[in-house]
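Hey there, shall we discuss this one?
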Amino acid sequence: MPEYYVIPNEDGVKKIMKEYGLSKDQIDKDVATIRDWMLTQPHLPKFPESKNDELSFWIEGFLRLTKNNLEKTKLGVESHFRLKTLFPQVYDVNDLPNYVESELYEYLTMVMLPKHTPDGLKIMYYNFKDSSSHLFRPIEIYKRMRLMLDIYQRKGIDFTGIHVVIDTRNITLSHISQFDLFQLKNLIKLAQKAYPLRLKHTHILFPPSFIDVAKNILKPFVSKKMFARLSFHKNLETLWEHIPRDILPIEYGGYNGNLDVIREEWKTLILKNNDWFLSNVNYKSDESKRPKKKKSFSCEKISFKTLILD
């Protein structure tokens, strides 16, 4: 398995450090601040000493993703553990060896392409094996996405944003109808905080005839900013205007490997991290211990953030 898929590119790391004005001392200080804050949160998990280095490195990844914003990092960390509690099916790793060999896994291709774009972004790609929908499970999209992003978090973050490329040639209305829109809204809202990646663009390849119907169904559940970053490509030439061909696989007119090979390499990479996934599956939030927010009251433009009665 080529480790360059997930081992941080040193130039990318240096670029991030320079852009955010960071030093090793500042990072260590900020990591310590986040760790101290975590200890004050009764609903967050407590980690053994054996996880100290891993936890610090993981927090450093969040700091990079949030441009070293401490408050956004706290929100990201907190949302990560809450997501694990509220959507356990996304974090199910009880049998990864059989899972990656299943028809369910094979039906959905989802990978991060090996190379960065010239501006330091990664490419997340997915499509469906065929137009039948009996093996389609919307939750699989989120599960596969988080498996990849968690591996990057473990190995080290050298990017802060992504392009998402979706080949929709095999998508039908039957696929769209399977989405639980209420679940989708809640999951997207929480996942955007738990994995605070900058979405540069979502590219819809070969949009189906019913694309306007799908857009109208999903629009109330997706932010205006995300919709503004949607592009539709009826041919590959317009995709190449956004993503250089040396980043794309040969199936899309690129020069960067074969998609089937990339699929298999990601499968191998997920299996190589099986023990690590298992060792972290039970670290999640205890929602019964979550501190209650103080209620706000308003009356005739007067706001009371805290009401104290003697």
Summary: The mean pLDDT is 88. DSSP finds 14 helices and seven strands in the chain. Strands lie at 108-112, 122-128, 161-167, 198-205, 230-233, 297-299, 302-304. Residues 54 and 98 are 27 Å apart (CA to CA).
